[in-house]
Amino acid sequence: MVQVEVFTTSNKKIGEISVSEDAKVREIKKQIAAISPKLPVERQSVRAEQKGKDLQDELNVQSLGSTRKIYVKDLGPQIGWNTVFILEYAGPLVLYNIIATQPWVFYGDIADESSLSTTALLALGCWSIHYMKRIYETIFIHRFSHGTMPLRNLFKNCGYYWGFAMYVAYHVNHPLFTPPPCTMQIVGLILFAVCELGNLSIHILLRDLRPPGTKVRKIPMPNTNPLTKLYNLVSCPNYTYEFGAWLGFTLLTSCVPAGLFALAGLYQMSIWALGKHRNYKKEFSDYPRNRKAILPFIL
Ligand SMILES: NC(=O)c1ccc[n+]([C@@H]2O[C@H](COP(=O)([O-])OP(=O)(O)OC[C@H]3O[C@@H](n4cnc5c(N)ncnc54)[C@H](OP(=O)(O)O)[C@@H]3O)[C@@H](O)[C@H]2O)c1
Q1: What b/e sequence results for 182-214 when a residue is b if at least 16 CB atoms lie within 10 Å of its CB, and e otherwise?
Q2: For residue 59, what pLDDT is reported?
Q3: I need a labelling partner for 265 at 20 to 30 A (CA). Which of 17, 134, 214, 293 fits?
Q4: Pick from 291, 111, 121, 163: which is nearest to 219 by CA?
Q5: CA of 111 to the centre of ligand 1 (A)
C-alpha cells in the first residue's frame, strides 16, 4: 500500500489516504470523498502539483512517480453533461417557436398571425431541425467522456443560446421583416442543409471512434461518407460545418442578428478547435500534418 498526503490547491492539508500500488486516480478520488464528504468524486480535479494539470481517472498511481503528495481542486457543484445540453438546446427550440407562432406577444398591435413570410417559415424549419438534431445527438449519438460539468456552465450556456434565440427570432419573425432575393435564399438553404448533414456525419464518425462505455480517443480519419472528407483539411470539421450552417441561415434570412450568432459561434469554436488541434498533435506523433484547426487553409 502507498500512503498519500492530500492537500487542497491552496496547500491546506485535507488528510492522508492509503491506496494500493496499482490503484488508479479514480480510486484516489473515492478515498478523498470518504475523508472529505464535501468533495464527492465528480467535484474533484486531482493534480500531482499544486498548479499542475488535471489527472485523468484512468491514470495509474505508479505513473505519479515518487510523489506521495497530491492536490485536489474543488470544481464546485456539478450538473449532468446531458442535462446541460438538453436544456441549452430545448430553450432555443421553444423560444423561437413561440416568437414565430405567437407574434402578438412581442409585436403587439402590428402583429398579424397570417403575416409570416415564406422565408420566415423556412427559417423556422431550419432553426427547429437544427435544435431537434442537437437534442437527438446529445441523447443518442455523442459518447461524452465527462459525466458532469460545473453548474455555472448551465447558466452561461443557456444565457448564450436562449439570448441569441430570442434576438434572432425577434428580427426574422418581425412583421416588417423583408426577405432577401430568391437566389440568395436558395444558396443559403442549400448551404444550411449540406452543413447540417456534414455536421451529423462527423458526429457519427466521432461516435464510432469510441467503443461504448470507454473514453478512448483516436485520430479521426475520413470514411466512405464523402462529407467526412473535410477531415483531410481540418481537425474539427463538425465546427466548420456548424459555422457553415449558420452562414447559410444568415444568407437565407439576410438578418444581422443571425450573422452575429454565426460569428460568435465561429469565435468560440475557433478557440476550442485550436486547442483540440494542438492536443491532437501533442497526443499522436503520427497526426496528419496538413490539417488546419477549423477553417481549411486559413486557421
Ligand atoms: N453554435 C455554437 O456556438 C456551437 C459551439 C460549440 C459546439 N456546437 C455544436 O455542438 C457540437 C458538439 O460540440 P463539442 O464541442 O462537444 O464537439 P466535440 O468536442 O468535437 O465532441 C463531440 C463528441 O465527440 C467526442 N470526440 C471528440 N474527439 C474525439 C476523438 N478524437 N476520439 C473519440 N471521441 C471524440 C467527444 O467526446 P469528449 O466528451 O471526450 O470530448 C464528444 O462526445 C459541435 O459539433 C457543434 O455542432 C455549436
Answers
A1: eebbeebbebbeebbebbbbbbebbeeebeeee
A2: 84
A3: 214
A4: 291
A5: 39
**Distance from the alpha carbon of residue 7 to the mean position of ligand 1, in angstroms:** 33
Element (H, E) at 148: strand 148-150
Q: Choose the weakest-confidence range: 48-57, 65-74, 117-126.
A: 65-74
Given a contact cutoff of 8 angstroms between Cβ atoms, the answer to whether 95 and 124 are in contact is: no
- How far apart are alpha carbons 188 and 169 in whole angstroms? 17
Q: Which comes out higher in pLDDT, residue 110 or 218? A: 218
Report the nearest atom of ligand 1 relative to the CA of 246: 1
Atom of ligand 1 nearest to the CA of 209: 33
* Whole-number pLDDT of residue 64: 67
User: Which residue segments constitute the domains of the chain, with CATH numbers given?
Assistant: 2-76 (3.10.20.90), 79-283 (no CATH)
Q: How many CA atoms lie within 13 A of 104 on its CB side?
A: 4
Q: Measure 68 CA to ligand 1 centroid, in angstroms.
A: 35
Query: C-alpha grid cell for residue 70?
Result: 497530491
Residue 270 Cβ < 6 Å to ligand 1: no
Q: Which three cell numbers stand for residue 259?
A: 450573422
CA of 177 to the centre of ligand 1 (A): 34
Residue 46's nearest CA partner among 66, 20, 75, 21 is 75
What pLDDT sits at residue 52? 87
Statement: residue 111 has pLDDT above 80? no
The reported pTM is 0.89
Q: Percent of the chain having pLDDT more than 70?
A: 97
pLDDT score recorded for residue 115: 74
Output DSSP code: residue 48. S
Inter-residue contact 232 to 290 (CB < 8 Å) = yes
